[in-house]
Amino acid sequence: LAWGARPPGQMPVSPRAGTRSAHLPLRTVSFPLRLRGWREGDRIRLSAGSTPVAKLLSEARVPVPDRPTAPVLVDGDGAVLWVPDLDRRAALPGVENDSTFWMDIVDGD
Fold first, then answer.
1. 70 burial via Cβ count (<10 Å: 0-12, 13-18, 19+)
2. Which pTM was predicted?
3. Contact at 8 Å (CB) between 4 and 102?
4. For 32, which DSSP code?
């Protein structure tokens, strides 16, 4: 896991194979962030509205026994910001020239 802040306009480094990345508007991120397993009742705010993470996992055909280990990134308020395995990020307000907070998760060899 790697993370940090990027100033506006700085392009992310090309990820290696097996890397999942998220870039979030720094101004809208409520710290501390936690990467944890999915929990019943988790919802993520997408551009078309709020959706249960369980529905996304079901649509992606993640087996029910594997769902509790599906990682989700939550902010300090408990809001789901990112579901790395599905590459789904929350729709957060931001301005084009805002600094971003980035996270990369690299699968182990």
1. buried
2. 0.78
3. yes
4. P
